[in-house]
Amino acid sequence: MLSKIMLDKLNKQINFEFFSSNVYLQMASWADTQGLEGCASFMKKQAGEELVHMHKIFEYVLESGEMAVIGKLDAPPTDYDSVEEIFKKALDHEKQVTKRIHDISETAWKEKDLATFNFMQWFVNEQHEEETSFTRIVDKIKLIGVDKRTMYLIDRELAGLAAAKK
Asked: Tens of pLDDT along 126-142?
């Protein structure tokens, strides 16, 4: 059985993962309208992954005999100036997710809720992968710049990453 504090944190994370999916889907829409299909594909895949994360936590709450609660979601931002801005904001967003995941894990540990602590370790590892992935993309964009010629290369690279994503 989950404590009230743990249930509240998990339900908030369910909603944050859902919001994260919407953030990436909106970024995909922006990229698509800029003719950046590779970037759009990458962000659509990312949006799908966030829904998988939401469902994992949702099911865990249900399996724990509690009710998962979906709350109101804010609309994600819609305006971006560049692909570089998208990926910098995505990296910042992933860092925020990481902090939240670590907070849930720390709370589970303090409460001696070892089942939840163990469950959250998958997310800890996943966040490490996500931050590494976005950091590498931001680094590559900084390395080659964002003029029209390099945007083609960046978009192709992101299309390849989208195709390779699990």
From this structure: 999 999 999 999 999 99
